[in-house]
Amino acid sequence: MNILVVVDMQNDFIDGSLGTEEAQRIVPEVVKKIQTFDGTDKVTFGSRELVKKLEQIQEETSIESITLIGLCTDICVISNAMLCKAFLPEVPVQVDASCCAGVTVESHMQALEAMKMCQIDIL
After folding, report:
1. Which residues have a Cβ under 8 Å from the Cβ of 49 and sit 6 or more positions away?
2. For 104, phi and psi rounded to 5 degrees?
3. Pairing between strand 93-101 and 121-122?
4. Dist. CA 109–CA 72, nearest whole Å
5. Strands 65-71 and 121-122
6. Residue 39 class from Cβ within 10 Å (0-12 exposed, 13-18 middle, 19+ buried)?
7. pLDDT tens, 27-44?
8. How far apart are CA 111 and CA 71, in angstroms?
9. Does the pTM exceed 0.85?
10. Please, what is the end-to-end C-alpha distance for the chain in angstroms?
11. 90, 119 in Cβ contact below 8 A?
């Protein structure tokens, strides 16, 4: 089973007080990505509940991969990707960069590089 984790795709983060042009630009790609996966998971920022849910799924069936998309690459996406990698080290964890945006373009790119260094695949 492939798991898709959609992180903080909320109005406030897209076009509200915390929104950016980059966040608005990824919305069509996020919609496409969601339509191609068979499930989504996200409970709270840096969520142990997310990890518990993924561990439960892993016990019931084999997770082939975990893909994260959403906002913000440099805060919520990276923290959740690191949790997934730490608690499920044998499961490939990946981040689709075309479906993510950071607080700034620079911090987005830095977060992607940091995740690469931690064996998280960047698509």
Report:
1. 43
2. -135, 165
3. parallel
4. 11
5. unpaired
6. exposed
7. 999 999 988 886 657 545
8. 12
9. yes
10. 18
11. no
For residue 49, the number of C-alpha atoms closer than 13 Å in the C-beta half-sphere is 5
Report how far residue 123's alpha carbon sits from residue 119's, in angstroms, rounded to the nearest whole number. Answer: 12
The Cα 30–Cα 25 span in angstroms is 10
Q: Which of 30, 28, 29 is nearest to 8 (CA)?
A: 30
Cβ contacts of 110 within 8 Å, gap of 6 or more = 74
Q: What is the pLDDT of residues 74-111, one digit of tens each?
A: 999 999 999 999 999 999 999 999 999 999 999 999 99
Query: How far is residue 79's CA from residue 110's CA, in Å, rounded to a whole number?
Result: 13
Give the DSSP per-residue string, the chain.
-EEEEEE---HHHHTSTT--HHHHHHHHHHHHHHHHSS-B---STT-HHHHHHHHHHHHHS---EEEEEEE-IIIIIHHHHHHHHHHSTTS-EEEEEEEEE-SSHHHHHHHHHHHHHTT-EE-
Q: Scanning the structure block, which residue is given the tokens 């496409």?
A: 32
User: Hunting for tokens 């082939």 — which residue is that?
Assistant: 64
